Amino acid sequence: MKLIMERTVFNKAQLEMLDIMANVRSDEELDALKHAVSEFYARRADEEMEKLWQSGQWNEQTLKELGNAHYRTPYKQ
User: Fold this and answer.
1) CA distance linking residue 22 with residue 32, whole number of Å
2) Measured between alpha carbons, how far is 58 from 50 in angstroms, rounded to an integer?
3) What is the Cα–Cα distance from 10 to 75, expressed in whole angstroms?
4) CA–CA dist 52, 15 (Å, integer)
5) What are the b/e assignments for 12-41, b being 16+ CB within 10 Å?
6) Cα–Cα distance, 68 to 53 (Å, whole number)
7) Residue 70: predicted pLDDT
8) What pTM does this model have?
9) How many CA atoms lie within 13 A of 40 on its CB side?
């Protein structure tokens, strides 16, 4: 059986993250890095939500509708 591996081309951000991760030397450092990345994306999400709120695309009614929505995957019983 012939195994064919495709070449992966990394973008600039991925290469930067690989360089950063190469210096992680402990589980504690890995946890800290994961926390920092998580905080980065949480901040971005907050900023985007603020933009939606300020533009009027998101409001109290939207929150209420979302609170009453059911997005679960229906399963056969």
Assistant:
1) 14
2) 9
3) 38
4) 32
5) eeeeeeeeeeeeeeeeeeeeeeeeeeeeee
6) 19
7) 82
8) 0.67
9) 6
Q: Work out the average pLDDT over 4-27.
A: 91
pLDDT of residue 39: 98
Token pair of 39, please? 């905080």
Calculate mean pLDDT across residues 24-39. 96
What tokens were used for 47? 């900023």
* Contact indicator for 53, 59 with CB cutoff of 8 Å: yes
Euclidean distance between CA atoms 55 and 48, whole angstroms:
11
Q: What is the DSSP string of the chain?
A: -----PPP---HHHHHHHHHHTT--SHHHHHHHHHHHHHHHHHHHHHHHHHHHHHTSS-HHHHHHHHH---PPP---
